[in-house]
Amino acid sequence: MNAPLTVLSKCNIRHCCVYKNDAKVFEAQENDPPAFLAALYRELRLDYRKFFKMDNLSKLAFLASEILLDGWIDRNVPHQDIAVILFNRSASLDIDATYQQSIRDGDNFFPSPSEFVYTLPNIMTGEIAIRNRIFGETACFISEQMDIADLYNKVKDVMDDTVRQCICGWVEYFANHCEAELWLFDGDNGETL
Amino acid sequence: MIAIAGDNIVSSLGFTAADNYRSVKSGASGVKLYEGLYGVPEPFMASLINQEALDEKFAALHSDGGEYSPLERAAILSASDAISQAGVDAANPRTVFLFSSTKGNIEYLDAGISDERLYLWRSAQRIASFFGNANPPVVVSNACISGAYALLTAQREILSGRYDCAVVTGADRLSKFIVSGFQSFKALSGTVCKPFDATRNGLNLGEATATIVLQRRQETAKGDILLEKGAVRNDANHISGPSRTGEGLYLALSRMMCGRNSADIAFVNAHGTATPYNDEMESIALHRAGLDAVPVNGLKACFGHTLGAAGVLESIISARALQEGVILPTQGFKQSGTSYAIPVTRNITPTEKSYFIKVLSGFGGCNAALLFKKA
Hints:
The structure holds two protein chains of two kinds. By secondary structure, chain A is of the alpha/beta class. Chain A has a single domain, classed as Thiolase/Chalcone synthase (Peroxisomal Thiolase, Chain A, domain 1). In chain A, about 30% of the residues lie in helices and about 25% in strands. Chain A is built from six helices and seven strands; from the N terminus they run βββααβαααβαββ. Chain A has a seven-stranded mixed β-sheet, sandwiched between helices. The two termini of chain A are about 15 Å apart. Helices cover about 30% and strands about 20% of the residues of chain B. In chain B, α3 packs across α4. Chain B is globular and about 55 Å long. The interface between A and B is large, with 54 and 55 residues. β5 of chain A pairs antiparallel with β5 of chain B.
């Protein structure tokens, strides 16, 4: 589709600070990503028990999407016309390393299915789909660094006559590096990026 | 139009697409019992690449095999054959490389998290660089639909006008990490798997690399296989369990079939992992999409579930069958075992029809449907 894309909403998380549409909305006391994710969950006053089962990557993607979509999505109805396309650098290496610890040697061989299921980076797109009843296309790409032009191309490519909006961006969590940048794109005509 | 210009499969059943296709047609299976492999305590059934034969073939291509991981060697060997078959210029700036993998070089994680080889984009860059291609490769990691999603992404890259040719390689290699994970899910069968069968009791894992070269064509020759359309939809239901209503797969199939007649479809090559829930879900989705009269086949008893390679590998075998005008049997299937009756194939049968559908479903609730056409 050649229609220009409109940005309806933006969410940025870096150095344990949260920005919505470029305005700071939350800041953690110290730079401790797991504690930051828990604090942000409390700050948003969410009641979503699945959150506590998630790995850190999915928690980060989930919280960023909650802030991004606030006021933009009705969770009471299914959405077939929204896509979720996320990118990152380290795939699921953060939880991969945790899972690897559980299978290191024969005497300590206790592989955990609840950890193994998160050892795929696209699980975070599934978590966002489940939370928001999004039945559209979901996908995960891996690249060395965020490339805005590439990201924009992928959004344009996914927009067809059945796709109205796309949640797209970069969600990276590895070795205490925690960074997210999400956009909600609308395919209708309007202000361009 | 976007056509398959070259293909290759490196698997337990051989090192070319033609060899693999011939093996499948003759009823071969590469799935065997392994005990003590990778230090996994429980024995398991799997389909593995013959590493010695792979290294020998790689040595003929490149003198210093040690530079590349086993996964990268298999991927380069596969891409090399498909590229030369296609006769395309892999280094051309109008050619892009795509890499589809769930776990890449995860076997190096045991040595620590700082190993650069763990990054999927790094493997992809090394594969593209081997062929002198300077474009940033596209890396898809979308669970078990990765291969199909990489083909759909390649189609879009070409349709957008950014590229004329795409080299799509799907690759995964088995390891302690992957085998133990599937064992922890109790998803593995102790026998060669039985897709859609009443007694099916789990999947077999497989390792393979497979490559499809897609190329923009102004004109096609009779018999060319074209990638017509694809759709991906989510179940929005559960991160690891298939939807009870087959929602995402049904939506993907409906989107893909929009305006098309199911009577034109020669067969559906299913995901058919042979887990009770997956195959049941597929039967529901096919029924809801009005495709329950179309023959269904599955290839997991031949290759196991080859993860990030599956979408590419199974599309290749299916494309070759369509090209030859046959519908392949489903090894391991004897008696219908899904609540919706779907015509799962038992024997090889001729077909005059010119379309097939490839479907895949994966963790994260994602489902893919691709439509291929014989020109």
